[in-house]
Structures are given as structure tokens and as C-alpha cells.
TrEMBL record:
Source species of the chain: Pelagihabitans pacificus
Gene name of the record: mutL
Chain segments annotated as transmembrane: none
Domain annotation DNA mismatch repair protein S5: ranges: 209-327
Function: This protein is involved in the repair of mismatches in DNA. It is required for dam-dependent methyl-directed DNA mismatch repair. May act as a 'molecular matchmaker', a protein that promotes the formation of a stable complex between two or more DNA-binding proteins in an ATP-dependent manner without itself being part of a final effector complex.
Keyword rRNA processing: no
Protein name: DNA mismatch repair protein MutL
Signal sequence, renumbered to the chain: none
Family membership: Belongs to the DNA mismatch repair MutL/HexB family.
Amino acid sequence: MADIIKLLPDHVANQIAAGEVVQRPASVVKELLENAIDAGAETIKLIIKDGGKTLIQVVDDGSGMSETDARLSFERHATSKINRAEDLFKLSTKGFRGEALASIAAIAHVEMQTKPEEAELGTHLKIEGSKIIFQEVQVVPKGTSISVKHLFFNIPARRNFLKSNQVELRHITDEFHRVALAHPQISFHYYVNGSELFGLPKCNLRQRIVHVFGSKTNQKLVPVQEETQVVKISGFINKPEFAKKSRGEQFFFVNDRFIKSPYLHHAVLAAFEGLVKPDCHPGYFLYLQVDPGSIDINIHPTKTEVKFDDEHTLYAILRSTIKHSLGQFNVVPALDFET
Ligand code: ADP
Ligand code: MG
């Protein structure tokens, strides 16, 4: 029988990878914001037009890239963040897979302007469907600006699957909240269709939560603090009387990365048991710092799931820490919800 297996060309492989990394405009926003943070940016601008369908742009004042790196950054598995497999268990960066820019450039029109601080001139590069349209030397500010247009231009099925601008914008804003809450030390500006939706100065965590969710939030917050050998927990929970029917304000961050964890969520609910009505959801902003060697983030391309070495211990510590905070702030159980 004749041999029939062949290696896929890069642009096809990139497009396949993109299917996992880029579900919708909000996924692009997440990847670009995370790259800006990894680049050490102090100020990050997010610019969105028409729910991300017309424009997604992220501008940072971070490290920037050399001319060669600017080109290489769009190759698959090209990353400056890890060198060896062992590094996966010492991660201090958001990125490490080296596939976001390659994936995005495979399914959109992308333009990048970038310059390291010390360089006199920067690079302007345009790439569409993995094809370089041009790359030239240009006078550009320090840092990196990446704009993404015509997302899914070559995948009609994905493009047609996009929801209304309003729905896509809601997903983008959720992503923005998560990143902004994880990094109060970074200043963020978020523009939608030409007007500024959020201008967040560099501040502390309480101030950042209040800036994002409004001044009424301040009175709801109860601080949470605990440090053990396994985990350092900080952040806030909302007082139980502010529990809502919707699940909006529930955030877990592990080593400054927003994650979803039904298991840890359950630990929080267990601590609130008897304090909130069964159909209401307590708000929380919880930050866990653990040894990077004790977790695995490389479970899913979007990196919103984490595998913990010792989940059970974490559960117990989290639950008792929150109970303690609730107790300290004289939050007493309501006697009977039915009356
Ligand atoms: P990863 O973040 O997993 O390394 P990406 O595809 O997102 O993969 O980015 C590839 C590389 O491009 C990064 O490792 C980094 O060196 C560089 N890069 C991407 N975005 C920026 C940025 N905003 N500023 C500086 N360097 C960047
Ligand atoms: Mg990245």
C-alpha cells in the first residue's frame, strides 16, 4: 500500500489550533491582554469596535519586540516564555504555549507595531491568514500595538456563529474585568465604539473592585486573608446580605490568573451555608497564591482550568478562611429564610 500520511502545511496547522484558542472576539482580547501583561506593561489600552467584529486592538507600553522577534512571534510554538518542559511547572507568565499570535494571524487580518525601549526605530508588520503582507521599519512608540480585523474571514462557519455585537461585547467586557481585577497595579483604558467605557488608574485591589463594579460595592466587601504552607489567600467576599440571584461577581484567581473551579466554588458556598438563601449567589474576589510547581495549567488551550496537587487541603483551608472572615465581621446567620 502507498504511503498516505503527510505533514500539514503550517497555515493549516495554525488554523486548526486557532479553532481551540479562538472561539470568539473575547478570546482574542484575552490573549492580547495577557501578552501585554507578560511584556511588563504599566498601561494597557483596549479598543473595540462593533463587538470586536470590526476591530480589536490592544496597545501596551511594555518591552516591545525586535524586528526578528516581531516576525517570529507569529510562528506556531514560538515563545520567549519557556525553554524546557520543566519550565511548565515554574510558570510566572500568562502565556507559554506560543500559539496565540500564530492562531489569531491564521484566521484574521493582523497589524502589529512594536519597539523595544532602547531601539530607535520599530517594526510595522501586517499578516493575513498566516501570510505576511509587509514588514517595514517605522517610527513607532515604545511597546506594542496589535490590531485584529476581519476575524474568521476565512472560516465562514465560525463567522456566522458569532452572536450580536452586544453579546460579543459582553463576553469581551467579562474578559476585561477578569484581567483588570487580576492586575490592579496596571492601569487600563477600555474604549468601545470611540468612547471610554473604563479608565482604571493603577491602585489597590479594593479600589480596583470599586472602580469596576461601582461605588456601592465598597460597603459590601469583607477582606479575606490567610497564609499557610500550601496557599496564600487574599481578596474579598461580599457580605451575605448582598448575595444576588445572578452569579456575576464570582472570581477566583490562582497566581494572578482568572480560573474557573467548580470545586473551590463549592468550598466558598459551603462557608456561606445558612447565611444566604439557597437561590442566591454570594459574591467573591479570591486570590490564591500557590507554588507554581503544585499546579498544572496546561490542561486546556484557554488556560482557565487548573489542576491542583492537593485539592482537598485547599478546599478545607478556603472554607475555614472564609468562615473566619464572615465570623470576624459579625455576620450572623438569619434564623429562618421562610418567614
Ligand atoms: P505565548 O504568549 O504563549 O508566548 P504568543 O503567541 O501569545 O505566545 O506570543 C508569542 C511571543 O510573542 C511571546 O512569547 C512574546 O515573546 C511575544 N509577544 C507577544 N505579544 C507581545 C507584546 N504585547 N509585547 C512584547 N512581546 C510580545
Ligand atoms: Mg500569549
